[in-house]
């Protein structure tokens, strides 16, 4: 019977003594959940609508992996998804009139106005649904330096997942 879960180890009780044995099934579940969080967060920050917060809340409720690892996987995935938007803005803006371009012209104009008014600090709102993705795209269009872009976005995305984790843990 397993009593304590660690990232790749499970403390199991045996008749004579306790020993630590690798529990392959739990380890595989943890790794799968972390990859799932990473992918869902990446997709959520890209051009596709997705809700990675729900995935994180469910994984937290089931305690599939350590808290820090789940927050890290979601934060890194979401930040890299935003970096993809920055790259799209930086290198593919000349395709904005094409039907496949990910951001509507009106959303882009709104985000450009917002970014023009508040500058790089508007990236702190990159975690927000609907406006966050266009802001990260506009940062690329307006040639925000990548180091400052990634630092600000990483802080915003990580803070969001920490808040989601704290709220979720209050109800589990």
Question: How are helices and strands ordered from N to C?
Answer: EEEHHHHHH
Determine the mean pLDDT. 83
Taken from the alpha-carbon principal axes, the silhouette is elongated
Largest beta-sheet details: 3 strands, antiparallel
Instruction: Summarize the amount of helix as a percent range.
Output: 55-70%
Rg, Cα atoms, Å: 20 Å
Q: What is the rounded distance between the termini?
A: 23 Å
Tell me the fraction of residues in β-strands, as a range.
5-15%
Per DSSP, the total helix count is 6
Concise overview:
This protein is mostly helical. The chain contains six helices and three strands; from the N terminus they run βββαααααα. It has helices at residues 24-45, 52-62, 67-92, 105-118, 132-141, 146-170; strands at residues 2-5, 9-13, 18-22.
Structure description:
This protein is 63% helix and 8% strand. The protein is built from six helices and three strands, in the order βββαααααα. The protein has helices spanning 24-45, 52-62, 67-92, 105-118, 132-141, 146-170, and strands spanning 2-5, 9-13, 18-22. Strands 1-2-3 form a three-stranded antiparallel sheet. Mean pLDDT is 83; it is low at 1-20.
Which properties best describe this structure?
elongated, 8% strand
Question: What is the strand and helix layout of this fold?
Answer:
Elements: E1 2-5, E2 9-13, E3 18-22, H1 24-45, H2 52-62, H3 67-92, H4 105-118, H5 132-141, H6 146-170
Antiparallel strand pairs: 1-2, 2-3
Helix pairs in contact: 1-2, 1-3, 2-3, 2-6, 3-5, 3-6, 4-5
